Amino acid sequence: MIILFFLSSGLFLGWSLGANDAANIYGTAVGTRMLRFKTAAIVASIFVILGAVIQGAGASHTLGKLGSVSTLAGAFTVALSAALTVYWMTRMRLPVSTSQAIVGAIIGWNFYTDNPTDLGILTKIVSTWISGPILGGIFAILLFMLVKRIIKKTSVHLLFKDIIIRYGLLVVGAFGAYSLGANNIANVMGVFTSAVNLPTIDLGIIQFDSTQQLFFVGGVAIAIGIITYSKHVMETVGNTLMPLTPEAAIVVVLSQALVLFIFSSQGLSNAIQSIGLPAIPLVPVSSSQIVIGSIIGIGIYKGGKEIKYNILGSISLGWIATPMVAGVMAFFMLFFVNNVFQQDVGGNRTLVLDNVIEQKNNNVSNSSTYDISDSLMHSKSALADTLASSPNVSVTEESDSIVSSNSILLLLAIAVLITAIIILIYRLQQKNKSAEYTLKQAKALENRYKLKIEQLEKSIEGKMQNHVDLGKELKFRQSEMVTMAISIIHKNEFLDNLKKEVVKIKSGVKDNETRTHLNKLSLMITQDLSIDRDREKFQMHINEQNSSFIHRMDESFPSMTENEKRLASLLRLNLSSKEIASILNISPKSVEMNRYRLRKKLKVEAKVNLTDFIRNF
Amino acid sequence: MSLLYKNVKQLVFDIDEFIDAVEQGVLVFKEGVVNYINGEKTSFADKIKRINRLEATADKLQRKIDDQFYRHSILPQNASDIEHMLDKLDEIIDIAKDNLYQFGDELPFIPKELKSDFIRLADTSVESALAVFPASRTFFREPLKVKEMLSKVYFYEKEADKISRNIKRKLFHEIKDLDLSQKMHLRYFALHIETISDKAESLADMLSILALKMNI
Fold first, then answer.
1. pTM of the prediction?
2. Number of CB pairs < 8 Å for A and B?
3. pLDDT tens string A26-51
4. Which domains does chain A have, with CATH numbers?
């Protein structure tokens, strides 16, 4: 039970890692509905645990070299500092990574316990923070080129390609989850490996040593984080971090998985060493930063226009700020745990009370008199002073009372921490609920607006089409009118010529009867010229087509006569005076006169063309 | 996943069948116009029946495809675009059917001088649509090749425009022995036939944009 309590900070770290980093693996797949969350969560959970148990030791070993936290209380405090740093920095919207927080917390532990920090190991770790995203970017470029080439060369049906991509996302995601478990379990349980020693479980074929059991528990914590909280992260943060097509998402997740795998595989490191190359440092790296590196890699390949370079600045800030905050927090928390809760935090700072008890026990066995050592004299422990001044009290009773008061303090601390965790989880749930509600509202609003925009677009499209159709219709009508006008002109010209011919024939004919007939014919032609049905039809047509124009004219120039309106309508058709004369069956000279009158009535200046004025009216 | 594979296989088959139905519908339309112009009443009535059947099949298939896309969340990012594209394909057969029905209902009088022009217009307009179908099929397999397949669509659309304009010019400038109402009636029929190539052009525009969108 006590072990579980001490592991709780690591488990909390694991939970938050699962909740946040699963979005890097399945964010796009779930966000774009290529995979169901349920499938993604189950696969990710299984493979995270497998990765942690099978391949988690390498990166954890390197962290151990940086600082081997040998007591449970120390490991608990280090993990708690890292967890609180991650939580606080996330709340402050600062770039943060669990890997960098745990390293900072371990260095803080080193400082507090006067444990020397191996600069060589530290350099190795920091170099992987920088090389991780760069490597991710390089892998992303190469894989992106490969995927593009494959897509170009194959002619798989789009719908079958969709299935392949789904499988691809699932498989690559499983690999990503495995690598995440293998690499990042060190962040979660790495600090506990030296402090906890569990008996090996023998299942016949497989044996689970203490570290693997710890990693299994840590893996389960990550899996719980994935199942309980990652859906929300995938739906909110996941898509904003990776607004990618599913094909590009495969590339990004695979790059990330490869980098995480490289920095956690002992076998690969050994293989590289065997061919004479330097060993790969097995270090926990930030999956989010590798993802950002991979996305930037794709951006560079595409021309680099869409890259937001300020994100690189925020990553660099994370490299410095996270370890510093975690280190300082770990230092103070260790001081607190060591001096207030009287817990041994490991290293060179062993518990003062232990010294006291040990000393007294030695004294009991060796001599009957109490000799307070110099070191004890230097101790500021009031309890030790009491013990020194009361030699008649039994040592066993004293040590029992100290242990019992310690246990009360410990239980109190457990209660406080459990309450704090419950409050934290409650607040997170509340926040989650309100965020979910806001998200739902925003989605509903977005959908409503989308619908409105679609409707508006459709109506605009319809209106535009109407406009085009009306334009066509108008052109057609105008051409119809012109055609009609021309046919009237031709007809009238013909009748006019016919009339002239009749007059000519009449002048040469002396027979009275024939002359009478010719007169009748001439009269008929004249009548037809003046009462032309076609012309009437045309006039009706003109009036109908120009109704709005005539209305406007009426409003602006109320004194206009019907003839003037007719003339204006004909001028609007861009007909010449001669053509108008033919249509109206008047002489061209009369048309010119009418034009002059119209110009005066419309108050059109001499330099302005009357036809243009009317057409633009 | 095997169930998804089975569904997708069926969906691919349905999409192909849908495009086939539209393609056949357009061909039936062309034959129907020729039958009408040549006065082959029985064949024309048969074409009306056939296009009606094909249009109903296309509608049924389209509804099924829509349903499958949403039910199995297939191509979630592009489903709406694809459905829009299928809508445009469906519009072609809808218009072909409506036009053929209009021939049957309104019985336009086509003078001898314009018969060959109307047949040529129907032929060219249909050619434009026929050129867009292979591009629609290729879109599902090799989206990058779609653009180069669309030039024929634009060519035939322009040709159809020219022929239609020519018919209208002839109607209003050269042919004297028709009433204005008859001229206007025929003018609308020229416009109706031409609309098929316009719709094909609109689909071609959409396909070229979609093909670009598909490029990662």
1. 0.63
2. 57
3. 888 887 788 889 999 999 999 999 99
4. 2-350 (no CATH), 546-617 (1.10.10.10)
